[in-house]
Amino acid sequence: METTKGTLQYNISGNGKPNIVLINGGSGPIGGWMKILPAISDSSSVFSYNHFGVAGSDKPMVSQDGLNIVNNLLEALTSEGFEPPFLMDGHSLGSLYANLYARFTRMK
Predict the structure, then answer these.
(1) 85 with 35: CB under 8 angstroms?
(2) Beta carbons within 10 angstroms of residue 39's beta carbon
(3) What CATH number belongs to 2-107?
(4) Contact, 11 vs 40, CB < 8 A?
(5) DSSP symbol at 61
(6) Are strands 6-7 and 2-3 parallel, antiparallel or unpaired?
(7) Which of 51, 67, 70, 102 is the most buried (most CB within 10 A)?
(8) How many Å apart are CA 96 and CA 101, to the nearest integer?
(9) What does the domain layout of the chain look like in residue ranges?
(10) CA gap 98, 84 in Å, rounded
(11) Bridge partners of 47?
């Protein structure tokens, strides 16, 4: 998917509610979710992606601090029409990004 900051590698699977967003920790690729993805995609729509600089996503053009990661995720979800409310699941550092996303979007 093309964003204003480059191309992000992502996967959307399933069809149902709730909409689930899987957020990797650090430099972990979306492949880390493949053991649970089929099961949760049976009843929900699931969005997973690689941060800039990970696997098939472009190298980052700006620092990958929490705010930039949240803005990139927000742009990606909006661009793909993947609409809230979300159930967010973050692995390791991804859980902090999920928390920051919830705080950031609540303020908008």
Answers:
(1) no
(2) 10
(3) 3.40.50.1820
(4) no
(5) S
(6) antiparallel
(7) 51
(8) 8
(9) 2-107
(10) 13
(11) 12, 21
The verdict on pTM exceeding 0.70 is yes
Q: Which amino acid is at 84?
A: P
Alpha carbon 83 to its chain's center? 12
Return the residue matching tokens 């979306």. 30
Q: Are 48 and 37 in contact (CB under 8 A)?
A: yes
Per the listing, tokens 């967003």 go with 21
Please give the C-alpha separations between residue 32 and each of 55, 91, 96, in angstroms, as whole numbers. 12, 9, 17
4-20 pLDDT tens trace: 789 999 999 999 999 99
Longest CA–CA separation in the chain, Å:
36
Main-chain dihedrals φ then ψ at residue 3, nearest 5 degrees = -120, 180
